[in-house]
Amino acid sequence: MEKWGNHTRSTSSKNQINKQAGIKKPFTEVIKANIGDAHAMGQRPITFLRQVVALCTYPNLLDSPSFPEDAKERARRILQGCGGNSLGSYTASQGINCIREDVASYIERRDGGVPADPDNIYLTTGASDGISAILKILVSGGGKSRTGVMIPIPQYPLYSAAISELDAIQVNYYLDEENCWALNVNELRRALNEAKAYCNPKVLCIINPGNPTGQVQNRKCIEDVIHFAWEEKLFLLADEVYQDNVYSEGCQFHSFKKILYEMGPEYYNNVELASFHSTSKGYMGECGYRGGYMEVINLHPEIKGQLVKLLSVRLCPPVSGQAAMDIVVNPPVPGEESYAQFIKEKESVLNNLAKKAKLTEDMFNKIPGIHCNPLQGAMYAFPRIFIPSKAIEEAKAHKMAPDMFYCMKLLEETGICVVPGSGFGQREGTYHFRMTILPPVEKLKILLEKVKDFHIKFLEKYA
Amino acid sequence: MEKWGNHTRSTSSKNQINKQAGIKKPFTEVIKANIGDAHAMGQRPITFLRQVVALCTYPNLLDSPSFPEDAKERARRILQGCGGNSLGSYTASQGINCIREDVASYIERRDGGVPADPDNIYLTTGASDGISAILKILVSGGGKSRTGVMIPIPQYPLYSAAISELDAIQVNYYLDEENCWALNVNELRRALNEAKAYCNPKVLCIINPGNPTGQVQNRKCIEDVIHFAWEEKLFLLADEVYQDNVYSEGCQFHSFKKILYEMGPEYYNNVELASFHSTSKGYMGECGYRGGYMEVINLHPEIKGQLVKLLSVRLCPPVSGQAAMDIVVNPPVPGEESYAQFIKEKESVLNNLAKKAKLTEDMFNKIPGIHCNPLQGAMYAFPRIFIPSKAIEEAKAHKMAPDMFYCMKLLEETGICVVPGSGFGQREGTYHFRMTILPPVEKLKILLEKVKDFHIKFLEKYA
């Protein structure tokens, strides 16, 4: 409209043209290996999951012969749990009852029969929402001194961001890079004892399989951590969103909940535990649905009341994300019409990821000045990179962290986007970056070759 | 599994049986008139919106002859804005570009050509998410004294909850019940001046059309409010989620943005304004999708940076909710295949709501001891109820607010669930409740008759 001179819109259009025009770069495409966003990297959705969500979205399709009966059954069940049989209704803040029941059954199957109570399940807007909510509740209950929250270093930065937003104290414990990023209880104890001097540590966060570090904790290590939490009366927060992403021979995912129960009633009646899962990772990679759940056990009834109150402010998690979560925990089973296709799609994704995990580790370890621990699980490599002192000086002159400087150069010269280790935390004087293994195999190979060439040139330049 | 005695699950089942068994009640059905949840009350989704979201969810349907071309076009456009053409990818934290462009075009059409910049549009997880985020940013920028946030009384309790969570100061201004819940600038000034003694008032929240009060502000009143905000350098926060819900003759929705621009550059270059919209209300009633947007203008670039950072912690709004929002701002237009059905469905919902608004007002005003202002807009009645002093005494003996006592009795005796006015705030010594007008007409009539019978008996009992 002429009247307002259309000034704002035209500025915006100009920006977009600038973006498109750009400056000539030595690459044709930016490869976003910085974020665990499977579909954006070309992974195809699981057909069954999308069929069920589409049926729930547009129930006229329940009469269509092109949808399988098992998908229709799932959709009918979910719709029966919705007010007015519509995804458009609010649900209870905690999520749809029948989906929470399916989550509980899934956990029982996964954990070899350890009981799970739907009342302890909260559907969430992705795992992040649950983690933020629990941290908020635990931190706000603090007394005089500020609440300490123990997190691994390196960590997924949601934790540091949430802790700082809540004005709590971040208590770092370091994973052991020399030992395949293992979690060592002595290090937990060191961190806790030092922290007690200046805060009130109440929460211990674990990420297993690790993000960005990709390690998978063994049973013994989990038992040690649980014993430590029991001894020190710490609330355990187990981020287990990569539970389906385990690749290395001899590695297996054990949930904290399962091990807790196997350690006996002294533990499972006392240790407070929240664990998190999501639609975003695993083999489905449905990040955009913002689906997730948390299971919270041994939560004090009063705190539980506060949690429900807090969750009710955001009304309810997105209902199509709840539906997607239902299919993650309640996929087709043998004998059902969709089983064959489902298992084929699932295994294809997971086998590919396993192949890419090995490929990435192997290729990184052939590059001089790069060392990469085995990618036992999750979907990232977190290689350690040697940065020559001349490059460190130049980074400092640009007021940049040395690994940020490295990653910027990598991006400018190759179009490959990865995240500097300083975004996750790392031991002083060590440098890393995080890269996803999500690009298709052929593209990943090219990407790794490019990193190799870049790195060798970088070493030469700053020798 | 026997090993764990299945104790948790069996407790849960027992609870459910108790819920089902219950105690014999003098009604057959609970009518939930407490929450603005249209689909749960039987309203049907808008076909076109669901078709587009289903097509985006399961793109195989793009080949199906049973979906109209205009829906397919919308779906293709949205998918092109998604990483890997999938709803399962993360989007930018601010939301998908092409949807933000559609929102900007919608605002320009709505506001008679006042320009809107897609860069100022943020897609959100329902309107609540946007409101909480903006409040957090504005409050955290505070200096020595705590930030005051002015809110109407009665208000939608999201505001009081967010303010208390952020440890800010709630500054009440009272809507004028005698004058159809009008907003009076003298009252704003009184509230502001008193508040300056104990806090730093920085934000003025307006809900228009009003929730729970249903008034629609006229142009003069909006101009006065904008002038006041300009004068006092207050950040204006305009909750306009009921912008499509205007029923009374002679009432019209005016956006704050439009009036701001019409007041001239001194205003539109200086007054900071955030306005909110949602998929949940209007004629679509898609609460479960958690779709929404906010437009923020004149935000300081530094604060804008903080906002983007804050929003990025939750990664992105649910993508199917973003798609639903797109259809709300970009529905079928004359000449398109789906237009006739769309406009029929939309008008049916809105005409029905208008009819129910009038019916509710009329029926309430026939009940002795109840007075109800005209329901000019939104989807609630907020009648004032006379509660006899004997009932007030009995409520106090039960440690209940008198209107809570009244609403509990109403629920117990009739199965009708409404929300006591004390949940929204009201002038000392006055009592109200909020009731939605969403039940179907015939059911609403029965409901209002039941309230009438209950109220008359209540007056007799406590005379």
Automatic annotation (TrEMBL), chains A, B:
Annotated Aminotransferase class I/classII large domain residues: 51-450
Reaction catalysed by this enzyme: L-alanine + 2-oxoglutarate = pyruvate + L-glutamate
InterPro entries referenced in this protein's UniProt entry, alphabetically: ALAT1/2-like, Aminotransferase_I/II_large, PyrdxlP-dep_Trfase, PyrdxlP-dep_Trfase_major, PyrdxlP-dep_Trfase_small
Superkingdom: Eukaryota
This protein's UniProt keywords: Aminotransferase, Pyridoxal phosphate, Transferase
Assigned EC number: 2.6.1.2
One example GO MF annotation: pyridoxal phosphate binding
Keyword Transferase assigned: yes
Start-end of Polar residues biased regions: 7-19
Cofactor: pyridoxal 5'-phosphate
Region described as Disordered: 1-20
Keyword set includes Transferase: yes
GO annotation terms (biological process): L-alanine catabolic process
Pathway: Amino-acid degradation; L-alanine degradation via transaminase pathway; pyruvate from L-alanine: step 1/1
Gene Ontology CC annotation, any one: cytoplasm
Biological role: Catalyzes the reversible transamination between alanine and 2-oxoglutarate to form pyruvate and glutamate.
Family that this chain belongs to: Belongs to the class-I pyridoxal-phosphate-dependent aminotransferase family. Alanine aminotransferase subfamily.
Subunit and interaction comment: Homodimer.
Protein name (Swiss-Prot/TrEMBL): alanine transaminase
Species for this entry: Zosterops lateralis melanops
